[in-house]
Amino acid sequence: MKNKQLISYIAPGSPAIRRLAEGDESYLRPEFGFTPKWYRKNLDINFGEQWHTSPAYRQEKIIRMGAELKKRFPNIPIGGISNYDKPADLLTGVYGTCAIAAIYGIGIKYFSDNWPCSQHAYFDDKKVDKLESPNLDSNKFFAELMGQVEWIADNCGTVEGYINWQGVLNNAYRLRGEAIFSDMMLEPNRAKRIFDCVADTMEQAIRRLYDRQRRSGFDVKFCTVSNCLVNMISPRQYEEFLLPYDKRFSGTFSLIGIHNCAWKADPYMKFYASVPNLGYIDIGLDSDLITARELFPNARRALMYTPMDLANKSTDEIKKDLEKIVKEYAPCDVVLADIEADTSDEKIVKVNEICKKLSR
Q1: pLDDT tens column, 192-225
Q2: Residue 21 domain-assigned?
Q3: Residue 1 lies in a domain
Q4: Which residue, 14, 241, 320, 349, is the most exposed by fewest CB within 10 angstroms?
Q5: What percent of the chain has pLDDT over 70?
Q6: Mean pLDDT (whole number) for 23-43
Q7: 254-274 pLDDT, tens per residue?
Q8: pLDDT by residue (tens digit) across 279-303?
Q9: What is the DSSP string of 84-133?
Q10: Mean per-residue pLDDT over the chain, rounded
Q11: Domains held by the chain: number
Q12: How does 52-77 read in b/e, with b if 16+ C-beta sit within 10 Å?
C-alpha cells in the first residue's frame, strides 16, 4: 500500500501528525510520543516562543532530544529520527496547532513545558459577518513561517516535515469560540461563512508550503485534517457542515488522513467512509473496531491509545487491549501520544515488545 496510506508520526516535542507510509509497516505498529513536559523535565529544554520561531534553536535541541531517545530506547524508533546528529525534520510541530488561527490574527500563548495555544480573542458577530480569507502575500504571520522554511532550505537543503493545519471545525473554534456551535444551529449562514474562509486559508497555505517543499526536493501530495471537536456536534451536523470540506480536501490532494482523536467514532464512521482517497483514519478504543475495519479496508487504520490508559493500566491490561485491537482492527497503528514523565521507560519498552510479538 505504499503511496496509498498514511501512518502516524510524532516528531520530538511535537503533537501527532501523519506521514506517508513506506509499505512495510508491522501488523501492529506502535508510535510513541512524549509531551514537551517530558523533555523539559529530562533535558530542561524550553519550549517557549524561541522553540517555534527559531529553526536553529530547534535544530540544536532536537539533536539533544534524539540522543536522549536513543539512549533510553535504543531499539525503538521514537520520533522518526534516523540521523541523531543532523535531524532532517525541523518543521514538524512549529506553532503546534495554532497556525491557521494565527494567520487570522489570533495571538499565540507560549509555554516552557507545553505546546502553545491560541489566545481566547474570539470574533464577534459583526467581525464574522464581514470575514474574508486573509491575503497570504501580505500576512505577517505566514511570511514569518515561510521565512523559517527558507532558513531550513538554506541550511538543510530540503524542507522536510509537516505543519499541523488542523481541521475546519477546530480552526473555526479558535476564531469564534463556543459561539460556533450555536451558529450552526441558529445562524447556519454565519457558520458556513467562517468555515468557507478557514477552508480557503487552509488550502492556500498548504499549497504554498508544499510548492516550496517540492522545489527543495521534498514532495508532499497529501493532507490531513483533525476533527478533534467532532463529538461536540451531531452526525447530521458533521454531514451538513464539515463533511463537504473533508471531501474537498480529498479532491484537492491525492490522499487524505482524518484524525478523529480517541473519541468513540461510531456515529461518524459511515460519513468518514464516504471521503475519497482516504489513506488514514484514527479512532478510540471504545469504537466498534470490527465495523471500522470493514468500512476502511484500504486506509491505514490507527487506534489512539490514551496516555491515561498507558499510565494507569497494568501491562497485562494493556496486553488485553492490544490483543483486542489485533483481533478486531489490525493491521493498524497504535498511537501512544502525549506520554508524561510518570510513565516509566520500562513500561514503554514492554508495550513495544508486546506489539512486536502480536505482529508476528
Answers
A1: 999 999 999 999 999 999 999 999 999 999 999 9
A2: yes
A3: no
A4: 320
A5: 98
A6: 96
A7: 999 999 999 999 999 999 999
A8: 999 999 999 999 999 999 999 999 9
A9: SSS-SB-STTTTTT-HHHHHTT--EE--SSS--EE------HHHHHT---
A10: 96
A11: 1
A12: bbebebbbebbbbbbebbbeebeebe
**Per the structure block, which three cell numbers stand in for 313?**
493500566
Q: Is residue 207 part of a domain?
A: yes
CATH code of the domain in which 99 resides: 3.20.20.210
Rounded to an integer, the average pLDDT of 124-143 is 98
Residue of 131, 126, 130, 125 whose CA lies nearest to 101: 131
Backbone angles phi, psi at 322, to 5 degrees: -65, -35
Residue 82: per-residue pLDDT: 63
Single-letter amino acid, residue 182: S
Q: Which domain holds residue 73?
A: 6-359
Q: Please identify which residue in the block is written with the cell numbers 497529501.
A: 222
Specify if 327 maps to a domain. yes
Distance CA 192, CA 242 (A): 9
96: left (phi over 0), alpha (psi -120 to 50) or beta: left
Residue 56 three-state SS: helix
Chain centre to alpha carbon of residue 84: 23
